Amino acid sequence: MDTRQTWMTDYEYFGEDYSNNVLIANAKASYEVRKTGIDGKSGKIDGQTETFIAQNHTNPLNQTKYDKKLLVDISSNIRAGSIVEFDNKKWLVTSKIYDRQAYKVASVNECDHILNVYKNGVLSQVPACIENSVQLYRMGVDETRLVRVPEGVTVLRVQDNATTALIQRGEVFAIGRENYEVIDTNSVIEPGLLVLKMEFTTRSPEVIPDPKPVQDIVIEGAESILMGKSAVYTTDYEEPVVFTITGTFATITAQANNSCTVKAGDNFGEVTLTATAGEVSGTKKIKVTALF
Question: What order do you get walking across the sheet with 242-246 strand by strand?
């Protein structure tokens, strides 16, 4: 007598005729139709353009948990912490991703603030959402206990990424009209999200330096050259430059160390000398003249 060693799944036993397959197919068809309806949205999920469904609340008692519920394609790479853009707003995925076989489901909160995070010489604008109800804060406390957040303390959620991972306790950020100091951070209680516990402070945020202005290249040298003679042109631009010349009345005979030698031809005329470094350049008009 044969003894079955493993149980077959319903799908393996019934094959494609199994009734769940029909239900899933119907759910997929309904989902595709609803994407073209009033709740259908075209937007971006982590920068990738997608079409999905954004539903409003159906249970008022659930409004403290999320602002909208998204139904997205099974193929979507949406995850907890994803940034979703639609309706001219940015939203943060604040829930786990649930696979309904016909589509995926996620909950999002509107990002109503931007944190200016300046790290390693780069300024990043990080979308953030602030808890919008009477909050109970659990960071660093046993899950079975509920601790009321003291007045003046704000809890923010941001995407947990390489930039936000550099945020440290003691840093100060401007939120609305006030300044808040980071007094605790946690990336464990909600994987994919970085939860920031912040407290009002009279300290000011770090002054973010203005971007380095583009420096025009200034070419020093004579305004004119006698026919058949040469002249040297230089620039003190901090990066190496390449000289080029426009016109047939003179030529560049040598260039090195941000200087060049220009030799005039045997005819009257004018040329334009150009020094270029990357996307920055500078020019100088040079006339070719006679002695008399």
Answer: 224-226, 280-289, 269-277, 242-246
